[in-house]
Amino acid sequence: MTYPRTNPAVAAGAVERHLRARRDVGRGLLMPYVTGGITPGWTDYLRAFAAAGADAIEVGLPFSDPTLDGVTIQQASDAALARGASTRRILADLSELSGLPDLGVPLVVSTYYNLVLHDGPEAFCAALRRAGVGGLIVPDLPVHEADELTGVAEGAGIELVLLASPATPQPRLAEISARSRGFVYAVSLMGTTGERAALAASAAELTGRIRRVTDRPVLLGFGISTPDQARGARRHADGVVVGAAVMRRVLDGAGPDDLRAFLAPLRQALDQECDRPR
Amino acid sequence: MTSTDETIITPADLAGGGVGGDDPDVRGKFGIFGGRYVPEALIPALDEVAAEYEKAKTDLDFVREFDHLLRTYAGRPTTLTEVPRFAEHAGGARILLKREDLTHTGAHKINNVLGQALLTRRLGKRRVIAETGAGQHGVATATAAALMGLECVIYMGAVDCERQALNVARMKLLGATVVPVTNGSQTLKDAINEAFRDWVTNVEHTHYLFGTVAGPHPFPEIVRDFARIIGVEARRQVRELIGRLPDAVCAAVGGGSNAIGLFHAFIPDEGVRLYGYEAGGRGAETGEHALTLTQGSVGVLHGARTYVLQDDEGQTIESHSISAGLDYPGVGPEHAWLKDSGRATYEGVTDEEAMEAFALLARTEGIIPAIESSHALAGALRLGRELGPDAVILVNLSGRGDKDMGTAMKYFNL
């Protein structure tokens, strides 16, 4: 079937075009996450992600008060900050890679709104652009607070990704899906980031509701860490975000090759034919 | 003095007393401050709380029940006490104390928790969570939860648990579960982070009984309205006592609920100056303080745009104060707005100044104040010397000092 277009007048940005192109050939999308500045050579993780078949990469800018994060990402943020990580240094590291051209994969930065506001949305988005970043996720910026950032981001060529939650009512979900750029980030459950034993039941219902109002790519995040969960997520969503499972390994000393090995079965699971109710 | 069976609060008192113009807009903004910078998952819950509160505050049954609890349980109205021997140290200005220390549980926090516990019941939720710094809001929440049969979990920084061990024991005795928070600076800000994490997970059956006028909309408005009775009573009491309004009104500011509670009824009174005293800790120059409004910059913390203590990279700076209740690197958005509009003045009071005022009030008047409130007392001493002997200064004695005896024993070698 064909999806109803949310707003055909809006041309998709580079991140969304990239994800749509891959989705439209039937590929399940994989977006691994790394906390920027977590180790001295942390950008090697990005190369490993790209080599493992990532379709986009999420880079977290660590914040001192990560209220939506569970214990793993909290520890990763604290560790990165203790090493002296900062927005400036992380973006400087990224600019040496320059995103898509080098990695072949779009970069999406995620951080809390205080760091966006600190230098002002204009300067922040311009700095992202200079560093080769294509997308931005701000988990504590709900759609009705996003006005001051959406226009600025669009002007700077940054795709501002909005998040949807299982508690979001349908009319609001339509607004989020319409105003999101790049993809829609579907938060699979009511809770914080972190590994879970099973994919939340709320994931299927939420992605189904998002699909009714948009044909943008939908990535499911929070609590997805195993090939089984990725396979389950793929039945409903276009792909998955894997964060805490990666960072727990990084905190335990995993190197780029270890992460490549960890991501391989997830990649395979996403590549398998799925009986998804399209 | 109001007799115990006379109504002390009306829907008008709760709804801002017809003050008008100083309520947040529909998105919860006080000018550029406030709003809702929270995960999407919490928006429906905040909408639900806001909608229920809008109904409750004009519902005569709700207001009557709140009024009844304030009178028969919290011990309102609280009295006004003039402290002439203390005021001798303030250049002879008259100083009047609003005695929130005499409420049940010993601090102004009881006003807000009783209102929100009633609201929790209306929301049909059976569990409350709360953050606490000094432990006063935790004790008050545990108290209200016990009174209304609600399950209660309190998040408290591990450092604060140690500083305020007695309050931890109180909460446990009242049936609450106290969760020590060991991440970050292990103080109030981290307790709030942890409470938000709980709420986003359990929001379906849990109300976050927020303890101060910070956080996302509608908390700054709800907590203010439930604390507003402090100023409503005090304004009337000062008039009865001296035949006019005070020249200045003083309160300590951490998150800012006792201050907004006292200030709010006086905002339309242009002749009344409003002074908030933040914790200066070891001094502004040391960097070890909680001078959010006077030294901080605009940012977003715990769901609201407001003044925040942050470093050059936008990371929250850990605050310092001898008083756990003021040890917070953010502040309520309405205070940020009152500061920028010039309606209120905010200054710092160091640990040392606060502890001097703490001891002075004890020795001159036989009242042991909370160290939080002692910041307002120290501010009043300074203000009295500036304003001169004709001035009348109203101070919010927001809590009693029993909980601070451990700190006092160490500080004064008692």
TrEMBL record, chain A:
EC class of the enzyme, as a word: lyase
Enzyme Commission no: 4.2.1.20
InterPro entries per record: Aldolase_TIM, RibuloseP-bd_barrel, Trp_synthase_suA
CDD domains reported in the protein's UniProt record: Tryptophan_synthase_alpha
Reactions catalysed according to its record: (1S,2R)-1-C-(indol-3-yl)glycerol 3-phosphate + L-serine = D-glyceraldehyde 3-phosphate + L-tryptophan + H2O
Pathway per the UniProt entry: Amino-acid biosynthesis; L-tryptophan biosynthesis; L-tryptophan from chorismate: step 5/5
Position of the signal peptide: none
Protein's job: The alpha subunit is responsible for the aldol cleavage of indoleglycerol phosphate to indole and glyceraldehyde 3-phosphate.
Subunit structure: Tetramer of two alpha and two beta chains.
Name of the protein this chain belongs to: Tryptophan synthase alpha chain
Protein source organism: Microbispora amethystogenes
Gene field: trpA_2
Automatic annotation (TrEMBL), chain B:
Region (Disordered): 1-20
Pathway annotation from the record: Amino-acid biosynthesis; L-tryptophan biosynthesis; L-tryptophan from chorismate: step 5/5
Lyase found in the keyword field: yes
SUPFAM superfamilies named in the record: Tryptophan synthase beta subunit-like PLP-dependent enzymes
PROSITE patterns linked to this entry: TRP_SYNTHASE_BETA
Catalytic activity, reaction form: (1S,2R)-1-C-(indol-3-yl)glycerol 3-phosphate + L-serine = D-glyceraldehyde 3-phosphate + L-tryptophan + H2O
Keywords: Amino-acid biosynthesis, Aromatic amino acid biosynthesis, Lyase, Pyridoxal phosphate, Tryptophan biosynthesis
PTM-bearing positions, type N6-(pyridoxal phosphate)lysine: 109
Subunit structure: Tetramer of two alpha and two beta chains.
Function: The beta subunit is responsible for the synthesis of L-tryptophan from indole and L-serine.
Protein name, UniProt field: Tryptophan synthase beta chain
